[in-house]
Design goal:
Chain lengths: 787, 343
């Protein structure tokens, strides 16, 4: 909310420095987003045009003699056409400083001009909101008055942020009250009595048909004069960011900015019987608002209607049909209170927001209706209109519920003590009534404009704000023991630390993506997920779906680098099960690598990936031996993929990323990847130490010829069990396929390590074990020793 | 030939070999040739068998003596060869300024590192770290947190909906409720995690971000404890001189509520022309406050007995300040230069 500092100063004493005011507001909970300082303007005064005539040497110029109070009148030439004798205008005198220029004595077509008649734009006001040509003032402005000082044109404008619970402070008076209470000075509120009170006269009847209208004050004004507002009001509105329109509209806007209560004025001549009805809109009812926008309404909208048609979209904007105009002589004022949620929903549905709705939707206090009406009546009366008796409709105003709170709660929640007197003083300035009760309990009654203070904690916040949040000390709590575990988080952190130690770089990618990911999967000849989790209201099509895997983002990431790279990500993935969107935490690591020159039945990159996977799983589970089975998994190469098993259960998939995907994701290098669902990993099982034998071990390397599709792991396992307890390690280390073995066969080199626990193993013992093991393999798989 | 003669010749050959050997490896060869399992001494020992039994002990002893001498000579030679080699290596001069050979090293993402550091700080003070789902129903996101439907504060949480009442959490606060539902006080947790809001993207805002939530509920917990813990956290993350400032604010789930600022680490609070804090000398971290009594009631905690505080800070925002990063999007772009510099 734009708040001209000069306006605030009307109601509260403030430090000269706008920064100091902003600081105070921030400490009260109203941060100032920006301070707009005004350009320095000097030497501009009000002048009355005593005489005006043609310039002797120029058809387009006029020359005026301007009365500027003290001293001789000034002779000033102007090209403006909106000037006439008798007007009071803005005059920049010789030496005056304007934003763009400094006024000097100069000749205009041979005639010396002793200054310049200036426009609103030259006073750094929005030109399009003011009259073309020279800025006009009221006759009542004494010639010679310093314009900048009089209208506080030099004062900064603060852009104040008001939290949604403090709609009462979306107003100049509301903020002034806060600043007054904080500084412990008086609030100089304007006269808020209604001059129509006791005046009698015509009344506008209001029928309220909806409970969502909680209060409606109507008041009739006669002898209304339209025309432009006085300069002070136009300038103030413009500085506040509100375009001045005419005297009547300006008053309604001015009162809203000052009191927070939005108003609406109807041309009384357009309202038959001066009867207004608050009702639900009819389905399909058409409404043309003041700003010319057209709306087709549903019963969701609340309208204020005459007996024939909707004349105001409640809380949003009036209708063009009963708009006040230059011809308006009588008006009906509406100062009403509506249900915040109702206005908010309507505004959302119509996509139509106004200054009024931004206040109504935060649920204004019903008591403000009388305040808004009174202030408007004051201003209308000042402008010459005749106020009549206001009439209030709707349920009677309920007194605010008193709040009992324990003084000791101040210490309990804020950590410092305040005594009764300090508490009372602080609440008093904000308009709260405080009555001490027995047992150190205070009964607090909120002021009528505050609907946000409903419980003891709310009162404590008010006290804390006034005492200053700086009073809160810094203490380290002694946290008592509890039984809440950090399991899942620790697992994720350990997974990340392990993968980083294995040489992978952590990345963080977006969870939302567009259909292009599925398009790439489809172009690879593969099936995208059948029921992806979809966002109903995405910001753009590029963020419609929740990722089903960390794979696509990883491949995209690695594809971007032209050189081999290693990366990992840990994050949630999303899927649908029984129509429920579900999620789980996945770890995904991958590297890209230049292809090796290897036969097609060998891929050492895969073995490296598997090695990293096993090292990772070992760190996570404490287990050191894992079985891998060849298998096919979506997204992976059908012949270069294994699932890693623990206790027969799949815990990880490791393999080369499907080359068809690499093509559609434009990855220049092969990528090897491993993925696992972190929650399926068994918990870490602490390994137990077995003292190694003190006696030397021996080994035998065997070259075994076997069927070409027999996995090495099966040979290893068979050898291990056949070799018995002396066998401490079995590992295949080489493979050969080719002319030197029969067709359909391969040769696998395996090293068997043997060690006895109680003595040195002899060659004969070792040979006997090997012989037995080879015999077992031979009968199981038809394996022979390679010659 | 007599054993002595053999020994004499052997010793002569051994000394020749020793003299001609250079360096440790050739000394090893000499040892193998003379003293090894199938070396000359072994051959000579075997020849003892051919001697009359009475002469054998004396011959054996002489051989042993000879072997001892040879071993001593070899050891001496070896020692001096090693000394020579060490001496030679000492004269080596390399260019130590040549670029190092880097290890294959991974790294933790800078945002995650901040997250881990925040969690570690709270863990040290007795907090548990809990994580929760990113898809949450209305109830946990709003209702239980004292934000009923149509509450204007819901606007600040412009959320992505998956179904009419399931959404991507716009904050980590649902875990406050889940944790308190499962445990009685004392409750001390931090909740790191990804959140989503329909915010327009710019250098400071993203529709996806990470939050770190903190919650402490017990008897006698007050706002000073909040300030104390947050001051400690800021000193851990940004530097040992950090100060923390509270400003009043409004969140439906806390009362009193505060915006938390910390001294700008770049200008150290001096302000002026500081590009990081815009001259205020302070950096906004996020919201905090005392848990609203309605929230406590929603999980069956008696607000007359228990009090607590909560905070929720953006992790990228903290990382932005800690590493002086110009644009929040960098945390999701994974540009190698970025990750490398902050590895």
């Amino acid at each position: 909310m734009r708040v001209p500092l000069g306006w605030l100063r009307d109601y509260v004493e403030l430090p000269a420095d706008p920064g100091a005011v902003a600081q105070m507001l921030a400490l009260l909970g109203f941060p100032v987003a920006s301070i707009e300082t005004r350009p320095i303007i000097t030497g501009v005064i009000a002048g009355r045009i005593a005489e005006l005539g043609k310039h002797p040497n120029a058809d387009r110029l006029q020359v005026g003699r301007i009365d500027v109070g003290d001293g001789a009148p000034l002779t000033i030439a102007t090209a403006a056409t909106n000037v006439a004798a008798g007007q009071t205008i803005a005059v920049a005198t010789i030496g005056a400083r304007l934003p763009q220029l400094t006024i000097e004595r100069r000749k205009m077509r041979g005639l010396e001009s002793e200054g310049m008649m200036i426009s609103a734009e030259e006073l750094a006001l929005p030109a399009e909101w003011f009259e073309d040509g020279i800025m006009q003032f009221e006759e009542s402005l004494r010639p010679g008055t310093d314009v900048v000082e009089c209208f506080r044109l030099g004062e900064a404008v603060l852009d104040v942020e008001v939290t949604s619970n403090r709609v009462d402070a979306m107003s100049v008076i509301g903020l002034a009250r806060e600043l007054a209470a904080y500084q412990n000075v008086a609030l100089r509120a304007p006269d808020l009595s209604n001059p129509g009170d006791g005046a009698g006269g015509p009344k506008a009847e209001v029928t309220i048909e909806s409970p969502d209208c909680r209060r409606f004050v109507s008041q009739i004004f006669t002898s209304v004069k339209s025309g432009p507002s006085p300069a002070w009001m136009r300038i103030r509105l413009a500085l506040a960011g509100q375009r001045p329109i005419n005297r009547l509209v300006d008053i309604s806007n001015y009162v809203m900015l000052e009191t927070a209560q939005p108003l609406h004025f109807y041309d009384a001549a357009k309202i038959p019987n001066h009867h207004l009805i608050v009702r639900d809109a009819r389905a399909g009812e058409r409404f043309v608002a003041l700003d010319g926008s057209e709306h087709e309404l549903t019963p969701q909208a609340l309208v204020i209607a005459s007996e024939t048609s909707a004349e105001c979209l409640a809380g949003l904007m009036g209708a063009r049909s009963s708009e006040v105009t230059g011809a308006t002589r009588e008006l009906i004022l509406e100062s009403a209170n509506f249900s915040g949620p109702r206005i908010r929903r309507t505004a959302g549905q119509l996509g139509f927001r106004t200054e009024a709705s931004s206040r109504h939707e935060k649920s204004l206090a019903p008591a403000l209706t009388a305040v808004g009406a009174a202030r408007a009546a004051q201003l209308l009366a000042q402008s010459g209109a005749t106020p009549h008796e206001p009439a209030a409709f709707g349920p009677p105003l309920s007194a605010p519920e008193p709040i009992d709170f324990k003084i000791s709660d101040v210490k309990r929640l804020l950590g410092y003590e305040l005594d009764l007197q300090a508490i009372t003083e602080r609440l008093d300035g904000l308009g709260f009534k405080v009555e001490p009760q027995a047992d150190s309990v205070l009964r607090v009654v909120s002021p009528a404009w505050r609907t946000d203070v409903t419980c003891s904690a709310d009162v404590i916040e008010e006290i804390a704000r006034m005492a200053g949040y700086d009073r809160i000390s810094s203490e380290i709590p002694a946290v008592r023991a509890h039984d809440i575990a950090s399991g899942d988080y620790r697992r994720e952190r350990k997974a990340a630390a392990t993968l980083a130690a294995l040489g992978y770089r952590e990345i963080v990618t977006y969870s939302l993506h567009g259909a292009h990911v599925y398009e790439k999967i489809r172009r690879a000849g593969l099936e995208p997920p059948v029921r992806p989790v979809e966002v109903q209201n995405p910001l753009s099509e590029d963020q419609r779906y929740l990722r089903h895997s960390l794979g696509p983002a990883m491949v995209t990431h690695l594809a971007r680098a032209n050189a081999p790279a290693r990366a990992f990500e840990i994050g949630h993935i999303f899927y649908t099960e029984d129509r429920q969107p579900l999620e789980t935490s996945m770890a995904f690591f991958a590297f890209s690598a230049e292809p090796h020159d290897e036969p097609e039945w060998r891929d050492s990159h895969f073995l490296r990936a598997k090695g990293d996977c096993e090292a990772f799983l070992r760190a996570m589970t404490g287990e050191s031996h894992f079985e891998t089975a060849a298998d096919e998994r979506e997204g992976f190469h059908p012949g270069k993929t294994g699932v890693v098993l623990m206790g027969g259960r799949e815990i990880a998939v490791v393999g080369q990323v499907d080359p068809r995907l690499l093509r559609t994701f434009e990855a220049p290098l092969p990528i090897y990847a491993c993925r696992m669902i972190l929650s399926t990993l068994p918990p870490y099982d602490v390994p137990q130490f077995k003292p190694p034998s003190k006696f030397p071990s021996t080994y035998r390397d065997l070259a075994l010829v076997c069927d070409i599709d027999l996995p090495a792991q099966r040979l290893e396992n068979a050898l291990r069990s056949a070799a018995g307890s002396w066998c401490t390690a079995v590992a295949a280390f080489d493979e050969y396929r080719g002319a030197q073995v029969p067709a359909g066969k391969k040769s696998i080199a395996i090293r068997l390590t043997l060690q006895k626990p109680d003595s040195t193993i002899t060659d004969a013992e070792a040979d006997a074990v090997i012989e037995k093991a080879v015999a077992a393999l031979s009968s199981q798989f038809g394996v022979t020793l390679r010659a | 030939m007599h054993v002595d003669e053999h020994l004499e010749q052997l010793r002569a050959r051994f000394e020749d070999a020793l003299k001609n050997s250079a360096g440790a490896s050739s000394l090893d060869a000499v040892r193998v040739a003379f003293l090894g399992r199938s070396g000359e001494v072994t051959a000579l020992r075997r020849s003892i068998g051919k001697l009359p039994p009475a002469e054998r002990p004396a011959a054996g002893q002489r051989i042993n003596e000879a072997v001892e001498k040879m071993e001593r000579a070899l050891n001496d030679a070896q020692a001096s060869a090693q000394a020579l080699a060490v001496g030679a290596s000492l004269s080596q001069r390399i260019d130590v300024t040549f670029p190092s050979i880097p290890p294959q090293q991974g790294s933790i993402h800078p945002m995650k590192r901040v997250m881990h550091d925040v969690c570690a700080y709270f863990e040290r003070h007795g907090f548990a770290v809990v994580v929760g789902p990113e898809i949450e129903p209305d109830y946990y996101n709003f209702d239980a947190l004292n934000i009923p439907p149509d509450h204007p504060a819901r606007e600040g949480f412009d959320s992505f909906f998956l179904t009419p009442n399931l959404l991507l959490r716009p904050h980590t606060s649902p875990m406050q409720i889940r944790t308190m539902q499962q445990h009685r006080p004392p409750v001390a947790v931090v909740v790191p995690g990804t959140c989503y809001r329909r915010d327009a993207v710019d250098a400071r805002h993203l529709y996806q971000f990470n939050q770190c939530e903190g919650l402490l509920v017990d008897e006698g917990v007050h706002m000073g404890h909040l300030k104390g813990m947050l001051t400690g956290m800021c000193r851990e993350i940004f530097g040992s001189e950090q100060q923390v400032r509270f400003r009043p604010s409004y969140f439906p789930f806390t009362e009193p509520s505060a915006e938390v600022d910390t001294t700008c680490p770049l200008c150290r609070g001096a302000g002026g022309e500081c590009r990081m804090c815009g001259g205020s000398g302070w950096i906004e971290l996020g919201g905090a406050g005392m848990v609203h009594p309605n929230v406590l009631r929603n999980v069956d905690y008696d607000p007359e007995i228990y009090s607590g505080w909560a905070f929720g800070f953006g992790v990228e925002r903290m990382a932005l300040v800690r590493y002086d990063v110009d644009d929040i999007r960098r945390f999701f772009e994974n540009d190698d230069a970025f990750l490398e510099q902050l590895a």
